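hiii, so i know i said id send this last week but things got crazy w the move. better late than never?? heres the sequnce for the chain we talked about at the cafe, plus the structure i predicted for it. fair warning i was half asleep when i ran it
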Amino acid sequence: MTGSRASKLVEPKLLTAGRLGCEENNMNMQTTAGTIKPEDYVDEHGRYAPYEYWLSTCGLYEFYDTSLDLLGELSGKKLIDCGCGIGHTAVMFAKRGAEVTAFDVDQDNVDKARALAAANGVTVEISRQDFEAPDFPEASFDLAFGSCVIHHVDGGRAGAVLGRLLKPGGRAVFIENSARNPVLMLARRHLVGTLGIPKYGDDEEEHPLTKAEIQGVRDSFPGRMEIIYPSLVLFRLIDFYITQRRWRGMTAFLRGLDDILGRIPWLRPFGYFQIIILEKHK
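okay and structure toks below
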């Protein structure tokens, strides 16, 4: 937990490879819409083949699992997926019974998200919206979710928007990157994009979420806030950017190193990902 104004909402769970459970080869390719192409299929844990390299190598499936635990029973709940991208998490929530509304600032993403929902046989209301000024009625949603989206917008505005959209007692869960580790930030500034190391994303202003931006969310949100670190995502980034899963032994070693070091609570906040939990006052 960070900051004196946060109060304890949950007890974070330590995650390891054994928790992942549902693998791609167990996917059921049948939906109410008929047979679905494997590359379009999204399961109830968010497994999605086109994003498999990123989500699996960077440990984000673990963060999805924790987010689902935090959001609780979804059946009949009104959930908004903020900055939904091409919609795979929105589909995941819809398959779990939520009444899902989703938005993204990019119209191409909105079109793809609509197609993905249709391919998976679920209903999701998807529109083009700006996170800092979305056009939805006040107190419309029980739950909110986002993945790597707050760092694209102003933290203070994001907190205020979530406070407006959530019902009293509503909860928001956001998976976000973190600027807390100075070594990772040094590598991001000086190594990524050089020496053959790929640079992902084309937004020059994009950067991991800073302490000041997190404080902006906290100050503007009408309720409680907590940050948890379910697992350590640190050394496996070497595999994502450099070795790129060419050697299974190296992939297993780097993942195992994160798992072992992640058992030390004070080290987990220095990983690249965190979960921000917001709970609106009743």
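btw The beta strands are 30-31, 34-35, 78-82, 99-104, 124-128, 141-147, 166-177, 223-228, 273-280. thought thatd interest u
miss u guys!!
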